[in-house]
Structures are given as C-alpha cells and as structure tokens.
Amino acid sequence: MSKTKIFFDTEFTGLHQNTTLISIGLVSECGKTFYAELTDYDKSQIDKWLQKNVIDNLLFNPDDTQMTEPSNDWNVCGNKVYVTMRLKYWLKQFEQIEMWSDCLSYDWVLFNQLFGHAFNIPKNVYYIPFDICTLFKLKGIDPDVNREDFADYKTNSRKHNALHDARVIKECFFKLQGVQQSIA
C-alpha cells in the first residue's frame, strides 16, 4: 500500500536547542492543507529578524484561539495542546503517511514534540521523515537553490509562512520527480 505524501514546514523561535514552535503548515499530495499558529511559543526568543520575517507573516491575531474548516483546508490557532488535538484529527483522514520537509532537522523534532515524544506520533505516520534537500543533491541540483524559482511557484503569500513553504516543498518535490539524476 502506498503512503500519502505530506509536505510540511515549521516556523520557530530560532536555530538552537531550546527553540519553540510558532507555526506549522502541512499540505497533502492531493492538496488538503492544515495550518496552525501556536499562541504559547516563547516570545522572549523573538528577535528583529523573526518579527519581520515570521511573526509579521502570521495569519491570526496573536490573541485568537479559533479554527475554521473550509472544504479541505484547516486553519487553527491555539496553544500546543489544542493544535496537537486538531492535527491528530486532520492526520486521521490518511491511511498511511510519508512526511517530507526541507532542511528537516528542526521541523521533525518540533513535529515530534507536539506529540510529546517520537513514539507518540500517530501510528499512520511513518517514523522516518524525508528531506527535499537530499533529493535535490541526489538529482545533481545545488540544495541551496531558491525553491520558489526552481518550482516556478508564483503566489501572493510570503516566504517564512509555514503553509506557503510547505506548498513550495510540494511543488519542488513533484518537479524533482521529472528531473533525471545527473552523473556526478
């Protein structure tokens, strides 16, 4: 049985051991989306760069706690417990899941932290994540390539919004599937 590919990205409070999750975006290969902003991230870790490039790209008012479920899209705002509960429910719609991210070191750790521990992730989520950076490298493409340019992805949304970045990862993945591996 094949696994549904879920492309995901997170935004967080910094590249360090004590980072906290600000937002998470997931998009399935069939286009269903989940986007969440957390209200209980460590605000003391926000610097000028994070404020301008991440916090200013959030969709909800920081004091909101709400959810909308229009068609296949879920948008959630709340604390870690609430976001995790809604994410578990969203993930249940897929029989088996293969997770893909971009430079996934922090993304995968933060995804696992939502569930308290790697052994607590939903059973339908394959425990081995996959990294689009490695796929770029295997296809002979510099992994530092601009993702939007590579995928020819044009949108009004901005980089460093987790759902936008998840959509770009998805587009890169499918474009890379058509790229022949270079002989290096």
Describe this structure in words.
By secondary structure, the chain is α/β, with parallel strands linked by helices. Helix content is 30%, strand content 21%. A hairpin with a 4-residue loop joins strand 4 and strand 5. It starts with a strand and ends in a 7-residue tail after the last helix.
Spell out the key features of this protein.
single chain; 184 residues; alpha/beta; Nucleotidyltransferase, domain 5; 30% helix; 7-stranded mixed sheet; 7 strands; 6 helices
Per the CATH scheme, the topology name is Nucleotidyltransferase, domain 5
What fraction strand? 15-25%
- Mean pLDDT value: 89
The low-pLDDT segments are 67-71
Distance between the termini: 33 Å
CATH superfamily caption: Ribonuclease H-like superfamily/Ribonuclease H
**Count of DSSP H/I helices:** 6
CATH class: Alpha Beta
> What is the 3D form?
globular
Number of extended strands: 7
Strands of the widest sheet, in order across it, are: 4-5-3-2-1-6-7
How many strands, which pairing sense, and closed or not: the largest β-sheet? 7 strands, mixed
Q: Which architecture would the CATH scheme give at its second level?
A: 2-Layer Sandwich
Structural class: alpha/beta
The domain tally reads 1
CA radius of gyration = 16 Å
N to C succession of SSEs: EEEHEEHEHEHHH
Give me the oligomer status. single chain
Helix percentage range:
25-40%
